[in-house]
Design brief:
Distance between the termini: 59 Å
Number of helices: 17
Helix content: 25-40%
CATH class of the domain at 24-197: Alpha Beta
Largest sheet: 8 strands, mixed
Number of strands: 24
Radius of gyration: 23 Å
């Protein structure tokens, strides 16, 4: 084994020990856990099998239906997998999952892993035509959905097996319930499939139709160790996952929590005060969010926030969309220096992580690459740019996707994959995101990235949030148009905000027009839907 590989193994072991994953264990449990990991590999199937061996009677999941132990989770997914196998679902088959954050999502995902089936995660904010188009392209053999989405999947589910993951009310759905399959299924262990199932996570579709990102299961625990070395999550911690599980950020933290044998706390819908209540009630040590959720929590005000005992909270992990520097500082002032910001994409997984120290020293930064990840910046000719210069962001790590399910890939240079963004490094080696590489606005021959203007506007005390887009301009080709949400109505004028930008940035970066609106259109992960703003 080469020196670099040995160093990586040592780094991984040290990190897993520090996180409490590797620790003294009863010999019989240690042997059984080792056998399970050897049979299943680092998959959801292995994670819950191992946790059932080590912590069988301890709580593994808390949702609105109550609690489930690790042994119950393991047995439930066995039962569901056996029933699905009887129905003809097996290795290589696709199962679409349109569920909110609850046990049905978890049961279906683990069952897919135990069968070697491929899980396709559908966005709960999709309209019926999007669901139909995605299912026509991806061709799953079955679809699991919450009853509230029955009308949305009516067309997409034709010719496919249908299962209900969650329903409310007295009237039972006509389709089979996951709970009924689990209740009647055989809970004995299954034989591992000859090939691991894949997960297909859809891109956000903020600038076009969502694409399926084909992602294989990791080959080792090294990717988990890379994250745990920078984000201090610990084994058997209670973690509130508020971010959607169908998105790469929520899903990544569920799988990371699986490695840690965390007790995962889920609610189907995000509510800011209920999130605080869950953190306090369960003495949760970690909260997983997208940035807009932090904004909504802070809007509750100090009086409401102070009602909840959050002394156990050690990590707030945010990702999924841009985290403005001003918001990061407000969060840390309210909850302590426990905020970690991960930058990445569905395609490249993660690229950088900003620690609380990074966010204090350089608000707005995306941080530094974790162990095993390489980030470089290139110009349009494929040449690496110098320090401080803006370039296209390219990333390399073990978790990069395998290409879009419909064909195609992201640009690759020197074995590194494009994240789709542009950015620059500061003198401390921290990455800053300047914007999407396809959002660049050319105004009067000058290149402008909206993110810089958005950050300038967001720093104003009267501004809650904002978004900037390019619009046609007869004189300059393109001009800038800003959409601004104020904290209090009429607290600042359009001219005041234009003057602020002019004082801080070049004149060609001043928006031609500023429109005040009540809220920005967002998808389920908090990303602003700029195509909707362009239609206004």
């Amino acid at each position: 084994m080469q020196l670099g590989a040995l160093q990586t193994k040592a780094f991984t072991l040290r990190t897993l020990v520090r996180a409490g994953i590797v620790k003294p264990t009863r010999p019989d449990r240690l042997i059984k856990t080792g056998i399970a990991l050897a049979r299943w590999g680092p998959t959801p199937a292995a994670g819950y099998c191992a946790s059932a061996i080590r912590y069988g009677d301890e709580i593994g999941l808390i949702d609105e239906q109550g609690t489930l132990t690790f042994e119950e989770l393991h047995g439930r997914s066995n039962a569901l997998a056996h029933e699905w196998r009887k129905a003809g679902i097996g290795q290589g088959d696709g199962v679409a999952i349109l569920c909110r954050n609850h046990r049905g999502f978890i049961d279906a995902t683990i069952a897919c892993s135990k069968l070697g089936a491929n899980a396709l995660y559908l966005n709960t904010q999709f309209a019926a035509p999007q669901i139909t188009d995605v299912c026509a392209r991806e061709k799953p053999g079955a679809i699991v959905f919450d009853e509230e989405f029955a009308e949305l999947v009516a067309e997409a589910s034709k010719g496919r097996q249908r299962y209900v993951g969650w329903f409310e009310g007295d009237a039972r759905p006509d389709d089979p319930l996951l709970e009924d399959l689990i209740a009647s299924g055989d809970r004995s262990d299954l034989q591992p499939p000859s090939q691991k199932g894949r997960v297909v996570i859809l891109t956000s579709g903020t600038t076009g139709a969502p694409k399926g990102a084909n992602r294989k299961q990791p080959e080792s625990l090294e990717p988990a160790a890379a994250l745990l070395a920078m984000i201090p999550l610990r084994a058997r911690q209670r973690t509130v996952i508020a971010a959607p599980l169908f998105h790469s950020w929520g899903f990544a933290h569920w799988t990371l929590g699986m490695t840690l044998s965390s007790t995962v706390v889920l609610r189907r819908r995000f509510d800011p005060e209920q999130t605080l209540e869950a953190l306090a009630m369960h003495d949760a040590g970690a909260l997983i969010v997208v940035p807009v959720m932090l904004q909504r929590i802070l809007e509750l005000g100090e009086e409401v926030i102070s009602r909840y005992d959050l002394r156990a909270l050690r990590v707030i992990a945010a990702s999924g969309s841009a985290l403005p520097g001003e918001l990061a500082l407000r969060v840390m002032d309210a909850f302590g220096d426990v905020l970690y910001n991960l930058y990445g994409s569905t395609e490249v997984a993660w690229a950088t992580i900003a620690t609380p120290a990074d966010l204090r020293a350089a608000p707005g930064t995306a941080g530094r690459p974790p162990h095993g990840t390489v980030v470089r910046l290139y110009d349009e000719q494929g040449r690496e740019v110098g320090k401080g210069e803006t370039g296209r962001i390219f990333v390399g790590n073990e978790m990069a996707f395998d290409g879009y399910t419909g064909g195609g890939n992201k640009d690759v240079i020197d074995g590194l994959m494009s994240s789709g963004d542009v950015g620059h490094f500061d003198d401390g080696g921290r990455l800053f995101i300047d914007g999407r590489d396809d959002e660049m606005i050319v105004s009067g021959g000058e290149n402008v990235f909206p993110r810089e203007v958005e950050d300038c506007l967001a720093d104003h005390e009267a501004v809650e949030e904002c978004a900037v887009i390019g619009v046609d301009d007869e004189q300059f080709g393109q001009g800038l148009k800003a959409f601004v949400v104020l904290r209090r109505e009429d607290s600042v004028s359009q001219d005041d905000l234009k003057a602020r930008v002019k004082q801080s940035l070049a004149a060609y970066k001043v928006p031609r027009e500023i429109v005040f609106i009540d809220e920005l259109p967002r998808n389920a992960t908090g990303k602003v839907l700029k195509r909707e703003l362009a239609e206004r």
